[in-house]
Amino acid sequence: MEKVPELHQGDRADDWGRFLKSRYKKELGEISRLYPHRRSLVVDYRQIERFGKAGITLADELLENPGKVLEDVWDAIKNNQLVRTRDGKEPKALNIRFTNLPKKTAIREIRSEDINRFISVEGILRKTTEVRPRIVEAVFKCPAGHFTKKTQKYGKFIEPDGCATDGCTFKKVELVPKRSTFVDSQKLRVQESPEGLRGGEQPQTLDIDVTDDLTGTVAPGDRVVINGILRSMQRVVKGEKSTVFDIFLECNSIEIAEKEFEEVEIDEEAEDEIKKLSKDPMIYRMVTHSIAPTIYGNEDVKEAITLQLFGGIAKEMPDGSHLRGDIHVLLIGDPGIAKSQLLRYIVKCSPRAIYTSGQSSTSAGLTATAVKDEFGEGRWTLEAGALVLADMGIAAVDEMDKMQKEDRSALHEAMEQQSISVAKAGITATLKSRCALLGAANPKYGRFDMYGDIADQINMPPSLLSRFDLIFIMTDQPEQKRDLAIAEHILKAHGVGELIAQHKKTPIPGVTQEFIEQQLKPVMPDIDPAFFRKYVAYSKRTCFPILSAEAKEAIVGYYLKLRGIAEPNKPVPVTARQLEALVRLAEASARIRLSDKIEAGDAERVIHIVDACLRQIAYD
Ligand code: ADP
Ligand code: MG
């Protein structure tokens, strides 16, 4: 879209000149020395704001009228000769990049009034294209040898109507690439962070146009803040121009967010509450009962999921290798046994988690993919799958047995090295996937046949299975007592909901709200999910327990016993991986009560769970 000519309300170049001289002398000097290698000046928005009365005006103007501000700053640099290259010349061009904006605009809240304004969006990178040159100033030549220049913007290539030289009537002109100017360009797609979404909303995305020295600096899966000018572009439907416009962000600067769980804010009051809860002697019961309270039974699975939420501690080995702290859990079970429900619940309790299906609809699947599609406009695009998007969190993957073949092999690397390598066409990249995997799968023939060998009914290779710290075989056998309990459990959840709804419409005489809430109790979690998330985030941030001698002894003893009784023909071999798993789980166990020390009790707890899992699949 052609930009509406902007009103020049007084010349601000002088103010910018004063600002830059007083605050960015050093940086400008550096650019002078290193130009053109260094050709971007990064200006902190807060610095502008703090530059007295003029600063507030400049800062406001940047948000409202960024196109003009960029020109003003460039004028200021030229007028004051703030940058001089080593041969004493003026630089051809400079990028002025602004960071650290006070307000973030949610992607789903971007509106037409934001067009041509400077905004800041936050999210996770889903796609990045290859870096390719884009023409910014095209030079054309007519048969008579005259040159015509045409400035190009992001989007459609614009050709002149004919030779622009006075008196020349040639309509036919040809592009002269050698005389034209190009810039490195890359297109990104940023998606709202999963933790900002509640209640299974689909994340929305925004496309970003990145140029020059910012290209190639980020990878899919990165958590970023992107600042830039929101632009619009007319849609073309079946060759006809539409009245509807698309938006994209002309990227001005990128900030990479690295800190873990910084999204979860914990104030002093919450911290006190967390510490108090951690000392409760019933903490394990409370935590476990807060995972999917509407699901009856499955105590061991819930305990495993709890441990997974807290996680072990990642370690860097002296030789530079990395030992994961994330705990992977797999549920293989008959249909209708609440696997999906459990997966959905963990997403609610975790500070950062995403739910996806192995049969995922996106082309990136679980890991990552390189494609050449419309998005890249001819360039290859690298797209992050679920395990990359879940970096530093939990990936709940349902229907894992139905995943794509490519994912299956990439998953090996993702689960152990916690990275995903893509090498296809011109793209070679290693994406981070430091996440814990909670997988759910059905048995090979749909249901477990209790008379057959369980091992034969698991539809996954041993190499993959051995990467899970815990594997649960969940069989659905009719058992009157349990069935009755589940029936009551489900009906209670339904009944109480109805009661509340009805009570809201027409209060039932003699029934108080408290009474209904009392009835609601059994299916309410002991710790509500919002607070639970804080608890988990706090523990992962602050608690790094180490093994006590007693715990170490118990774990090693159990491991040696396992090696002695493991059967070689079982689907899960007992290897050093189990030892690592035991340590991770014990770390998580200590983290639940925010303890610095892994006690014998932690070891016992996790040996009990590991043993229950392995009994079905590693030995009899
Ligand atoms: P799966 O993914 O294992 O096929 P679902 O998670 O879709 O099964 O569960 C099917 C339904 O049965 C859900 O509505 C769930 O709430 C209910 N259900 C199954 N087992 C239990 C249980 N132990 N307690 C309460 N509800 C259950
Ligand atoms: Mg299911």
Automatic annotation (TrEMBL):
Keyword Coiled coil listed: no
Keyword Membrane included in the entry's annotation: no
UniProt-listed Pfam families: MCM, MCM_lid, MCM_OB
Superkingdom to which the source organism belongs: Archaea
TM annotation in the entry: none
GO cellular-component term (any): MCM complex
An individual GO BP term: DNA replication initiation
Alphabetic keyword roster: ATP-binding, DNA replication, DNA-binding, Nucleotide-binding
Family: Belongs to the MCM family.
Family matches, as PANTHER family: DNA REPLICATION LICENSING FACTOR MCM FAMILY MEMBER, DNA REPLICATION LICENSING FACTOR MCM4
Name of this chain's protein: MCM family protein
